[in-house]
Amino acid sequence: MGPRMPRYYFNIVSNAATVVDPDGTELATIEDARGEAVKDARALMSQAVLSGKDISGRKIHICDEQGALLLVVAFSETIKMAD
Asked: Which residue range or ranges hold the DUF6894 domain (predicted)?
């Protein structure tokens, strides 16, 4: 077995509350973590739109195992405006 991969935590932050990721996900790099956050944000926004809600103002805070904030991914940055 190789070295253990770092574990990243994806906390979803809105004006009302923060949903903390209790388990985290092991990924090789912060770039991989950002890619996961983008996929998560798009999936969550898709579900919200289908139920008539706009949650594009939310953000995902990617934190390390010590709880330090590494990166913020805004939901609104994960989609492009189309006409």
From this structure: 7-76
Instruction: State how beta strands 69-74 and 18-19 pair.
Output: unpaired
CA distance 32 to 35: 5
What's the start-to-end Cα distance of the chain, in Å?
Answer: 49
Please give the residue range of the domain that contains residue 59: 7-78
Which sign, positive or negative, has the C-alpha torsion 21, 19, 34, 83? positive
* Count: domains in the chain: 1
